Task: structure prediction
Amino acid sequence: MSLQIKVPATLADLAEAARINRIDTMDMFAAAGNGHYGSCFSCAEIVTALYFNVMRLDPARPDWPERDRFVLGKGHAAPTLYSALIRRGYMPEHWIHEFEAKVGVKLMTHPSRRYQPGVDASGGALGHGLSIGVGMALAGKIDRRDYRSFVLLGDGEIQEGSVWEAFASAAKYRLGHLVAIIDANGLSVDGTLDEVMPMEPLADKLSAFGWEVVECDGHDLAALLRVLDIGHDRVDAAPRAIIARTVKGRGVSFMENVRRWHADVLTPDEDRLARAELTRPLS
Amino acid sequence: MTSAEIQARSAALRAFYPMRVIREQFGRSMIALAEQRGDLVALTADLMYATGMAPFGERFPERLINLGIAEQNMTGVAAGLASCGKLAVVCGYAAFTSLRAIEQAKVDCAYNEVKVILCGLSAGLSYGVGGPTHQTFEDVAIMRAIPNMTVVVPSDTIELDQALQAAAARPGDAPIYLRIGRGPEHAFNDTAAPFEIGRARKLREGRDISLIANGPMVVEALIAADILAEHGIGASVLNMHTVKPIDREAVLSEAANVRGMIVVEEHNIHGGLGSAVLEVLRGGHGFPVELIGIEDIYPPIGPTFALRESLGLCASAIVARAMAMPRRN
Result:
């Protein structure tokens, strides 16, 4: 069911929505038996801020042409998006408990327009989302519509070369209504980005590619609202990149910054411990 | 008839057909389509001149998105445009559209259910001197294996225009791969003949052997049929411009009416039109089927027509194969 939160949500309500987002994610992974805990918890505040405050949406009309768009580049964090869509009323709540549970269910590891109302782009293969977002923003610019396109990328995902093709093209076409949010938790599947493939200095790289770059704490909802809500009148401007500094596994102490929790299986004791920590909003 | 005589005869017959430059027609057809369709946006990857799109760029500068040498991004951008209501037409080389950006074609277009028209120019051996990086002989097989992808291989400038129009008008949320040549090719189609994606066109009737072909091999099949007729062999010619969804009824109807079949394509014999036809027949018709195509090799370098001839992708080779192959009684 949808959360009884008035949108645009207050900071207190957003914190509660982000808490419920993590619980929903726990429930989905419980149904599946495993999941990408770290990747989801890293972006819970970003997705919550977008869906409960920033984005112009009408859940009764998922195909409304004037809606703001969202593309999840790091598709393996789909449960975070599913929770937002369920709590905004796009999808039924019982889908949470069917996540990956049997053949033919609607919710799986990666988002799909095919099965999930409210999802703007199917994905999961890394490095695709920003290009799709560029196309969405370009269509809006050509048609003089004022919707905005938000793309959430992982900081590991941007190791894919196609992402840099997309960064270059968004700057060329001055897509002022495009926002790329990089969930910069510093970890990928095999280790820290510094070990696997260093991508810093990110801000310098993105500035050099012609983007307006801002950095913030990706768990600070007030800070996120300030940088995400770019307004609907940035017609001819540099696209905005937000480097959201995050903690992978944020909210569950034993998962935070631990490589293993990119995706793993919880023991019953770990499950109890994690849920106990998620009983109240994070400070 | 000696092989030299067959070659001379096919050259004489080929001379009846005027030569038309494929990519010039592509540019003209795109302009015509853009004049009808205000929602059309063309995308290219630093191949505006090479795909014949420069006149389009002059006519509609704001509707030609040049994304630089970056086919993966181009295909994803096309998917994003299409998801927001644009008729997105990717104008690239077949080699890069079908290989470099194949994951975007699958995930962003086909799986994501958006109608993007993916145009792969310089396909087959039409850029023969470019060598195997630019020759394209695996694209039909790859595109055909992607669910929700339609694959069309026009056979001349006339059919290219018809196919582009049909692709633009096609309802639904499925991408379409158009496999398109490059330089001069023989023009032979009747501009008044109806064209429908998924419906093969019967160009010749004959009861002895069926020649099924697409792309630039259709005119070779026509010439071969003419020569075979001069030798008392009745060859039907079926232009199978759509490889997927293949016209099953047309294949089965041919199988019921002839004593042997040859499938001819400018593509690897693995996975292309020949494979698609055999999938329909499934070995159940008890008559010989021969495949003419590129025999799983990296073709040598050479000008297009000479290269095709050297690989047996020509009328005289079809005639020789037809005369040599066994036929069902």
